[in-house]
Amino acid sequence: MSNQADKPSVLFVCIHNAGRSQMAAAYLAHLSGGAVEVRSAGSAPADQVNPSAVAAMAEEGIDITAETPKILTTEAVKESEVVITMGCGDTCPIFPGKRYEDWELADPAGKGVEAVRPIRDEIKQRILDLLASLDVTPVNA
Prior knowledge:
It contains four helices and four strands, in the order βαβααββα. It is of the alpha/beta class and 141 residues long.
C-alpha cells in the first residue's frame, strides 16, 4: 500500500466550484479508487453544488450531495502536482514545476440535467485520459 506522498495529486479549479470541477473531482476519486489525491476549488465559490451536476453524477452512481464549493487557496495549488483549470483563466496562481491544463468545457450553471449530461460525459472521458497519463489504471469504470 502506497502512502499519501506517493500518490499523484490533482486540483480542479473553476469559478464557482459548483459544477465542472466537482464532477471532475468526483470522477477522479471514483475512477482512481483512491490512487490519486483529489482537490477542487473555485476562485469565487457558489453557495452550493449545482443540483443538475448532483443529479447527473447520481445517474452514474456517484453521490456528490455532501460536497460544498471551496475557495481556491495558494496552498491547494502548491500541494498539487497537476492543476486543471476550467474557465477561470488568470485567477489560478502559477508555480514552476507543476503540470497545468485548461479544459474548455461548457458551464453547467443554470442548466437542467439534460444539458449537463454531455458535459459530464466529456469530463469522464478527460478523467480517463488523465488517469492514463498518470499511469493509474481506472477502477469502477
